[in-house]
Structure formats: structure tokens, C-alpha cells
Specification:
InterPro entries: DUF3574. The protein is of the alpha+beta class and 64 residues long. The protein has 1 helix and 2 strands.
């Protein structure tokens, strides 16, 4: 998990800045994994009463 700063535009049109958390999850790009990530994102949004929660899906290759 990484700390970050986020911003969004409030209902009055003004920008609001707040702390953000970035979670890196490495998994196979299966339809089931994507569905699970979307479900987690939605549960987080509802639980913490967020207007929006981002989800970035990116293919990559790593060697160790």
C-alpha cells in the first residue's frame, strides 16, 4: 500500500484535496479476478461513503 494525495471536484465545483491510499494487487487477468476487484471497489465505495473509487487495470511483465 502506498500513500498519496487525491483531489476531486465537489458538488459546488470547488476542488477538494484529501489523503489517498494506493493498493497494488498483482493477479492473473482472468474475468473472475476482474469481477472480484470491481466488487471490492464497490464495497469500499459504499462502506466509506465515497463518491468514486478508482480502479486501474494494467497488463505488465515482471521477472525476478
Amino acid at each position: 500500500m502506498f500513500s498519496g494525495r487525491g483531489q476531486w471536484r465537489g458538488p459546488d465545483g470547488r476542488r477538494v484535496h484529501e489523503a489517498a491510499r494506493i493498493v497494488l494487487i498483482v493477479t492473473a487477468a482472468t474475468p473472475e479476478a476482474v469481477a472480484a476487484l470491481r466488487s471490492i471497489k464497490e464495497e469500499y465505495r459504499e462502506h466509506f461513503a465515497q463518491g468514486a473509487v478508482g480502479l486501474v487495470l494494467q497488463r505488465s511483465c515482471a521477472l525476478f
